[in-house]
Design goal:
The structure holds two protein chains of two kinds. By secondary structure, chain A is an all-alpha fold. Chain A is built from eight helices and no strands. Chain A folds into two domains: 120 residues, no CATH class; 33 residues, no CATH class. Helices cover 59% and strands 0% of the residues of chain A. In chain A, helix 3 crosses helix 4, helix 4 crosses helix 5 and helix 4 crosses helix 6. The longest helix of chain A has 22 residues. Chain B has a single domain, classed as FAD/NAD(P)-binding domain (3-Layer(bba) Sandwich). Chain B contains 13 helices and 18 strands. In chain B, helix 1 packs parallel to helix 7 and helix 6 packs across helix 12. Classes of the chains: A mainly alpha, B alpha/beta. At the A-B interface, helix 6 and helix 7 of A face helix 6, helix 10 and helix 11 of B.
Amino acid sequence: MVNDRESIFLTFQALRPDEAELFLGVIETVLPHAQPQLDLPRIATALVIDAQMVAGLDLRALVLDGLREVDQSCRRAHGAGFTSVPPEQRVEALRAVEDTPFFQTLIHIVKADFYNRHIVWRVLGYPDLDREDGYLDHGFDRLPLVGAGTAEMTGEASRG
Amino acid sequence: MASRKEYKLNEPVDVLVIGTGAGGGNVIRELCLNGVEVVALEAGPRFDPERDFVNDELTMFNKLSSTDAIIPAGDSVGAFPVWTVKGVGGSTVHWTGNSLRAREHELRARSVYGDIDGASLTDWPLTLEELNPYYEQAERYFGVTGRVQPLQRTNANVAAIKPGADKLGLNLRATPIGVNAHGPYDGRAQCTQRGHCMQGCSNGAMWSTLTEAIPKAEKTGWLDLRTGCQALTINLDASGRAKSVTYARADGTTEEQAAKMVVVAGNSINTPRLLLNSATSTAPDGLANSSGQVGRNFMCHVTGTSFALMPHEVHAYKGITTTGMIDDFSGNAPDQVGYVGGFNFVTVSMGMATLSIFAQPGSLISKPGSRGNWGTDLVHLMDNYTHLAGLHFVGEDMPNPNNGVTLHPTTKDAFGMPVAVLEYNDHPNNASMRRRGWAKATEIFEAAGAEEVIEVPPFPDTHLLGTCRMGDDPATSVVDGYGRAHDVENLFIADGSVFPTSTAENPSLTISALAIRQAQHIMSIMAGEED
């Protein structure tokens, strides 16, 4: 776990700390993986998009407008901002903007960045860098449950 | 390797080839091996597989994919309509290696299927028997398994699905592929079964013109390959013969290369775009377009994918991506299934980032109004990545004269060339076939013990077909059975645009066979053996 969230929010450049907190809260709701090892890559993904928004003014405007709408809808419905409401109300707030260009753009770039990280691959069971030499001698042609040598592929595979 | 040949712009080269993919690359190799001077124009860069190709689908997608503007139109063209490679090797760098011959009934689509409303079906101007010797030559170059190399061992994805196929009496077996599955072949290395190889094979085990045809042509010393050069117009002389090609270099400067013959292989979008942009006062509707067929009958394939959540680990990413296939649904049986033509299943897997996007694509890459997945649905899918098995179907598309490529009247690219407008509307036959494809995949998966099946909509198209259809009648087709333009006797087309109908098979092998046949025909003409 990353404990000092305030310092994380100060690391953002295109977003102010309060905007960064809201942004990261939205990303955590889009990617609600329970594995603690995935907290850091979620933050990394938020920072990558923040970096894109430093020069990408159109993207920044799209994201900021969308974040404000999400936050305000929470305040109207629940009397508290997005980061202060429980997870089910966060999901409800995002469902309300699901078909907007803001949200569809956001989830596209979030997924493209997050799921292309080695640590995410590793945690979800894809051995990536360990098998750059291929699987020719590593059980490509058999199922782990019925073939020999299954342990190498099963150690870290998680399942929801 | 011979030193790079450099021909002079104003001295007509024997043959100028535009494009270096399956069509262009095969023509270039055949001509150069026989001592023909060739200038090849390639709009994109030249990748170094060892240096540039990594085992990371999304990085490779961003590195390889053509991002040239295409304006989508019609009810079925997604926001990111096509998925092709702009670079030496073209889309043979982004393919599965599937090397299937077309089926006899598919080459006689009009005769076998009859008159289908809304479809401009026609028969091919050549038979499978005529094409087979060229298939054999292409298969030798590719090293196709089951033809010139033994069939490959299939992967865990196939093992997971096979019990279901067996229960249903379906023949799930190794796909004939252009991959060196057993050892080095033709100077290319053995496949390491690293998977995710649809977007660049780093050691050349999977055939491509980048690693086979172009290097062989270069070794002859007859090839002058010019990368970063986009053809703008094909120019005619007073007699109506092609005399030169004007092209833009990456820095925006233009040059004009004289040629005795011109072969266009830019794909089903850029070939008609070039012909239409080459309109003159004597060909006001575009070059080689007296039939009005240039740009018409764009086809892709009827595709869809299903992923199954299995009760056990699969690790489907290991090994050649589409290493297994089921062709029990490839026949034409409209009375039984309610549509004409057929489809083939292949096994499939995706990298994590690709899966997270394509499993439920949003409006950025799919249809307007489509909605990407997120939250618990997304996490459920991705947390089960190791337990997924996949099937993908590829079926015959119906040609529609109103589906196709036109030039946008005002929007132009960086070189002043009008941007292509691509219109595509789905045919009801396609919709029926797609429904059955998904339904059969679900049956197979459930018979194999799947806990859950996810239907995935079509990806952006890679199999670009039609728009310059071939035929015997100049009134209804653009080129003859050799790909020679009816209107311009020294102009040939060598890509998938010449397909009069799509067939159900992945097109690279057929494009290659046609290109080899065309190259031999060109040499016969040059030798004075034919007109």
